[in-house]
Specification:
alpha+beta; single chain
Length: about 120
Amino acid sequence: MTYRITFMPLGKTVEVDPESLDEPRDGRKGSLLQIALDNGVEIDHACGGVPACSTCHVIVQEGAESIPEAEDEEEDMLDRAPGLCLHSRLACQAVPNGSKDLVVEIPEWNRNQVKE
């Protein structure tokens, strides 16, 4: 089942087919980080997606219910993220189930490497 993710503020929408995802360079397979990187959307991720930092913090503006709840390890790292809000996630750990399209905001402090 394919679904779409729009990365804001870039306004870049990518179509995702979970069946065709390669093994990730960083983060979990099918994670927002993997999908972003595979589609030319750079998200800072200092720890390589293990998760041991909060640099890949993103805000899931729409479709958050299609991502399983954060595990304790992710929650611990999110506590260190600037601008934490209800729909904050670590892009390296958040793996959508494909049931909804998503809109994901890359916060300003994480855009220093984003190709606009």
